[in-house]
Amino acid sequence: MSTVSAGFSVSLDGFVADEKDDISALYGWMVGAVQQDTELDDMEYTDQGKDANEARSAAFGAIVSGRRTFDLAKGWGGQHPLGVPVVILTHEVPTEWANDGKPFTFVTGGVAEAVAKAKEIAGDDTVAVCGPDVMRQCLEEGLLDEIGVDLVPTLLGKGVPFFAGEGPVQLEKVSADDADGVTHLRYRVVR
Amino acid sequence: MSTVSAGFSVSLDGFVADEKDDISALYGWMVGAVQQDTELDDMEYTDQGKDANEARSAAFGAIVSGRRTFDLAKGWGGQHPLGVPVVILTHEVPTEWANDGKPFTFVTGGVAEAVAKAKEIAGDDTVAVCGPDVMRQCLEEGLLDEIGVDLVPTLLGKGVPFFAGEGPVQLEKVSADDADGVTHLRYRVVR
């Protein structure tokens, strides 16, 4: 049975991006000194980021992403960097992506349908939920099994919040790894 | 030179109390199943809480507290549970406490004066900042050296926030301890 898991780099004050949607202050541990407009091809994983990503993506069978993340990433150039099929939750299927053989599935029926589709693709592997909006929808609909947090030692002050009023939700800590700079935390959602 | 340190039990979504000022969901790891109106004498430290508290309070030379915390705790019955002198930041000195030999000092000149007074009392020991409002004032005025977070595996959804827009502030992780349930995190404020 597939596990539905969401993971983010989060500032100590609970933001997943700054107010300009820039994530460079939060993902430096993973991909070095990226800027918001850094092209995918120019990104270079740090050793720490490479190890973390390889360990995680090995478990991923499919990704559920919001349309906004898909658009911001410009469709990851046709292939998600983790090499995993992506189910994209959208209001409208983009005609330029739908039928060109890329590993993307567009779902318009809501988050439960997107997760069901991703589980079908993933088989026994993990479904990774990408984007805080989709994560929160999954949490509210009882679809989320795990939350991963890479806790970054910074206070952004303002930005895009990780959580926005979901709860009360009981969690159970699965692991906490004291890495260089960041702390890798994993929680199981108790239902 | 005294270090000024703030420490709180915080939910994964960044609250230090629920919307009714109840902290029982966050301090269970430390003092068991307390309710909001549990009397101090009825509180019993868990083994984990006892160890954490003893290690911390041994380093404390003085505590800076907001008046609200002082009032909510009913003056801790005349003696802070950590057995440390308390400097209370207030607008008005309560006459019933000012001159009765209790280890409390009331300061009306603002947070910088309260911290200076606490440092004077603490000598080389740590000044502990108590209450999120006072912590945030210290952070904004550049008075805070360390932030301690006991990260509790729960989402409260709403409540009293730990941070409220302070930043950007760069932190440096001092330690992350994977304890039973909670994760004990310590950060140095980079100035």
TrEMBL record, chains A, B:
Residues 4-176 form the Bacterial bifunctional deaminase-reductase C-terminal domain. One of its GO terms (biological process) is riboflavin biosynthetic process. Transmembrane segments: none annotated. Pfam families: RibD_C (PF01872). Gene3D superfamilies: Dihydrofolate Reductase, subunit A. InterPro entries: DHFR-like_dom_sf (IPR024072), RibDG_C (IPR002734). This is Bacterial bifunctional deaminase-reductase C-terminal domain-containing protein.
